Amino acid sequence: MNSNIMEEKLAWFKENEKPEVVLLIADDPQKMKLLIAWSNTEVSWKEEPTDCTSDRESEIWQWLWDHAQYNPEELQTKGAASPMGFEKRMEFLIGNRLIYPDGTIHSFVQRYLREKVLQLFQTTGKTKKAKL
Fold it and tell me: 20 to 30 A from 41, CA-CA: which of 50, 72, 76, 77?
């Protein structure tokens, strides 16, 4: 078995995203930092994956994550995350399918984060113009 099977199974989750999950992180800067750090952390698939023997959505999701490899210390550092509660925040992000085991993040969440950044730039731009 190769990573094509994993990519195929993962594609189903990406095609069936729900926009409501954005509300889970909208007012949580720590989770937002981890989301951004996740997309900048090296993630790979295990060399010799097992077969996925289930058709259940939750079991396929768990199977995918069982085959993902990443360095938690690197993620903690990049996300400026305290070791206290790090695992729980990761379980939250994984369980709510906000991050994917290929190193990407939920597309609606990604759009939300980009919109937040654009709002920051617009606010900063207005402030600078007012001072001139």
Answer: 50
Picking from 83, 72, 66, the residue whose alpha carbon sits closest to that of residue 42 is 72
Whether residue 28 has pLDDT greater than 60: yes
Domain count, the chain: 1
Which distant-in-sequence residues (6+ apart) come within 8 Å of 100 by Cβ? 10, 13, 14, 106
Q: At which residue do the structure tokens 């509300």 appear?
A: 23
| 59-97 per-residue burial string, b: 16 or more CB within 10 A, e: under 16 | ebbebbeebbebeeeebbebbebeeeebeebbebbbebb
Query: How far is residue 126's CA from residue 118's CA, in Å, rounded to a whole number?
Result: 12
Q: Is 69 strand, coil or helix?
A: strand
pLDDT for residue 132 is more than 80: no
